[in-house]
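Notes from hallway chat w/ T.B., transcribed later so I don't forget. T.B. wanted the structure written out for a chain they're using in a teaching module, and asked if we could keep both sequence and structure tokens in one place. Agreed to drop them here.
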Amino acid sequence: MRLKNVELGHSQAQKRLLEHMQVMRGEHLPVPDVIRTLLYRPDLFGTPFSNCLEEAMHKPSEWSIGERELFATFVSSKNRCAF
């Protein structure tokens, strides 16, 4: 499911950054949706989300960091995510 606001609701500065990213990636590789989401709501998805992810992946756990990375990779592949 694609949300129109995540695709079209960016500020002018964010749009310029996304356009620059698109040029750098080439036309055959679109800017990943996760980047669009992080830019769309940086107050929610930017630093707070990144801090939460950092904590989940690197705080003490019964699972090693490598195992957590492997789980994330597996889930991404099941969701047909490129990264």
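Follow-up for T.B.: The two ends are 18 Å apart (CA to CA). Might be a good example for the class.
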